[in-house]
Amino acid sequence: MRTANVRSIVIWTLVALVGAAGWSVLALSRGEDVSAAWMVAAALGTYAIGYRFYAKFIAHRVLKVDGSRATPAERLDNGIDFHPTDRRVLLGHHFAAIAGAGPLVGPVLAAQMGYLPGTIWIIAGVVFAGAVQDMVVLFFSTRRDGRSLGQMAREEIGPFGGAAALIAAFAIMIILLGVLALVVVNALASSPWGTFSIAMTIPIALLMGFYLRVLRPGRVAEVSLIGVALLLLALVAGRRVAESSWAGAFTLAPSTLVLWLVAYGFVASILPVWMLLAPRDYLSTFLKIGTIVLLALGVVLTVPTLRMDAVTHFAARGDGPVFAGSLFPFVFITIACGALSGFHALISSGTTPKMIQKETQVRMIGYGSMLMESSVAIMALVAASIIDPGLYFAMNAPAGAIGTTVQNASQVVTGWGYHISTADLAQAAKNVEETTLLSRTGGAPTLAVGVSEIFSKVTGGSLRAFWYHFAIMFEALFILTALDAGTRVGRFMLQDMLGNVVRPFRNVSWKPGLAITSGIVCALWGYFLWVGVHEPLGGINQLFPIFGISNQLLAAVALAVCTTLLVKSGRLKWAWITGIPLAWDVTVTLTASWQKVFSGDPKVGFFKQRSVFQDAIDAGKVLPPAKNMDDMHTVVTNSTVDGVLSAALALLVVVVVADALRVCVRHVRRPALSTLSESPYVASRITAPAGLVETREEKEEVRRATAGTAAPGD
Question: Which one has a higher pLDDT value, 435 or 258?
Fold first, then answer.
């Protein structure tokens, strides 16, 4: 035992030193070349320490997870929504569900401020806020039969604050789903390779689901090998299809993709979780994690230099061409999912608590998955920071700022202090077999260029275009897996809301109810998506500017619910664990909301933008991005709607937080008045490990259970 302890101390000391070395280089280096490998070292060292010590402390000391307690997946197993799922498959599902556009796109956009602010928030934010939120929400939802976040707020905070939480959470969910779907449509439109490869993941997932359920139950390793082999085959075949006579069948217009996405979202949300959702997400996780691991190895092998400034002049001035606003609060809003995301709380109180086998697995699935997503965000920031800064700004600045020719773009970007020649801009596009890379906004193309830069140094420059298009397809797959799970969670939320009025809806697996609510959810985000695809300034494009703030406001609701539950469940002394992140998030998001509503800068404030465009209409002028007077009127409408929605959502969150504070104070003063909606204890009959790798004790427990000699309560 003494030797094991010494070995453990040595190992964790080395891990801490690696992380500390990475942070030291990033923080202290000024004016000299800095390798991206130091960013990877800082991230991995911090993640390891956070998971090993902080997450374990919260799980066992604060939450006191109980492996002998049956989860709702075991007690309410119906093979549709409630189904005990192998921890490895569930880890894949949960990670795939939470890892949408945010960790890929947000950090790329935030690179405008420099690589250092984003790195600090992504790593520190996930360890102390994002991963904590995900794990604590998952734990409390598991203790409450998989209740949704809004319903937990209603039951634990009260009808007033709970109603505000239900409305805010559902409205924000529709916005998030519409934005995610729009990113998928933009990535797959006219891309037969991506469309074919992603379409093939559906029959592969169905095969995996039936394999585990019917043919070879419990054989996760076998089905993993089969699934990965078929996935790689689909990726290779996708490129061949794109170059064959079949390309036309998989070259879909945006409007056609919208219809397919809505249909897929509906079907995925009503089929049993074991049949399509869980195996498809598990399958996609291999590609996601595999790509990120290879990207990290590529950074270590090629040691690329961070070419972006540690902190750019846009951070202080707030007039950046990628997005307007100062470093505080907008870098924290822009990064979102890579550090702290309200969307994750919906998954942690949606599909996952209805599938988890043991409470002891919340650390691995809740905290661990979020660390995995944060690693994606770090690699996205690395990819954006190693390319030429001039190219970065040329790709991410709108056409209204840099023009449509490489000559104009070169001149404008050079004027910002980041020189790039017209020849360099033309060559960059040629390298990835694109006609132009100018104003390829949204973050995804920039990430793809960074990925191709790293991988081509390992495999050779001739494959640069291949890696670029592979990364575009990879991003679409990344986001689509969040869309299907999100639609199912939206269905759960709507069922919980309607269940407060119509009793049968309380049973989330009631077939008429699940069909009706799934149809409503798909129709809502599908409508905004359809309009957005056909009208460049309408539909979901109208709501895109409030995507980041909405997501962070939802995180404030989740952290408020978590803090309330910690207080009411007798964990007052540990309430700071979610209380401090809550205070930070509320400060950031309400500051951002105030600026977006009342700022006098038309690039930041919605109502100021409305005033400027209305004055131009009165003067008969057309301002970019509008191209005619109809577009001008649309911008005025969009600015008005976004301003009103931003104010309304912020007000709803203030109501939730204030009501949560009232409940906490009342509980401290008069604990007897508080009630908890926690489900009664039922002994578990399932034996399953807590982590990915079984411990010696867990192997013995499984052996005894298999032999039928497990002691009662084991």
Answer: 258
Q: Record the tokens describing residue 396, joined without a space.
A: 């991410």
Q: Can you list the alpha helix ranges (DSSP code H) found in 443-510? A: 444-459, 464-499
Task: Extract the tokens encoding 410.
Answer: 């070169």
Q: Of 222, 221, 181, 226, nearest to 203 (Cα)?
A: 226
The strand pairing partners of 35, in sequence order, are 305
Is residue 399 within 8 Å of 122, Cβ to Cβ? no
- The pair of three-digit structure tokens given for residue 626, joined into one six-digit string: 């509008």
Using the Cα atoms of residue 130, residue 134, residue 140 and residue 141 in order, give the sign of their dihedral: positive
β-bridge mates for residue 69, sequence order: 683
First to last CA, the chain: 25
Residues 386-412: what's their mean pLDDT? 92
Cβ within 8 Å of residue 196, ≥6 positions away? 234, 237, 238, 241, 242, 246, 250
Cα–Cα dist 395/393, whole Å:
5
pLDDT at 706 > cutoff 80: no
Q: Quote the distance between the C-alpha of residue 676 and its chain's center.
A: 30
Bigger pLDDT: 478 or 511? 511
Question: What pTM value is reported for the model?
Answer: 0.90
**How far apart (Å, rounded) are the C-alpha atoms in residues 110 and 98?**
20
With a cut of 50, say whether residue 471 has pLDDT above it.
yes
Per-residue pLDDT tens for 593-617? 999 999 999 989 999 999 999 999 9
Torsion angles phi and psi, residue 69, rounded to 5: -95, 130
**pLDDT at position 4, please?**
58
DSSP-assigned letter for residue 693: S
CB atoms within 10 A of CB 465: 16
Q: How far apart are CA 455 and CA 379, in angstroms?
A: 13
Give the confidence band of 711 by pLDDT, cuts at 50, 70, 90. very low
Q: How far apart are CA 172 and CA 552, in angstroms?
A: 10
- CA 205, 207, 210, 213 torsion-angle sign: negative
Instruction: Report d(CA 154, CA 163) in Å as an integer.
Output: 6
The residue-averaged pLDDT of 163-185 equals 83
For residues 662 and 564, what is the distance between their CA atoms, to the nearest angstrom?
10
Task: Identify the CA nearest to 323 among candidates 22, 504, 592, 556.
Answer: 592
Phi first, then psi, for residue 67 (nearest 5°) are -70, -15
pLDDT digit string, tens, across residues 477-503: 767 777 888 898 889 889 888 887 888
Pick from 427, 425, 429: nearest CA to 411: 425
Which of residues 455 and 709 earns the better pLDDT score? 455
Q: Note the pLDDT tens digit of each residue in 526-584.
A: 998 898 888 877 777 777 788 888 889 999 999 999 999 999 999 999 999 999 999 99
The residue-averaged pLDDT of 427-451 equals 86
What burial letters (b/e) apply to 626-655, b meaning 16+ CB within 10 Å? beeeebbebbbebbebbbebbbebbebbbb
**Are 545 and 323 a contacting pair, CB within 8 Å?**
no
For 70, the 3-state DSSP assignment is coil
Would you state the structure tokens that stand for residue 561, as one six-digit string?
Answer: 């619910």
Q: What is the DSSP string of 179-196?
A: HHHHHHHHHHTT-HHHHH
- Region 189-194: mean pLDDT is 79
- In contact, 606 and 549? CB cutoff 8 Å: no
Reported in sequence order, the residue ranges of 120-241 that DSSP labels E, i.e. its strands, are none
Q: What is the pLDDT of residue 212?
A: 85
Three-state DSSP class for 455?
helix
Q: What is the mean pLDDT of residues 686-712?
A: 76
Burial class (CB in 10 A: 0-12, 13-18, 19+), 213: middle
φ, ψ at 35 (rounded to 5°): -75, 140
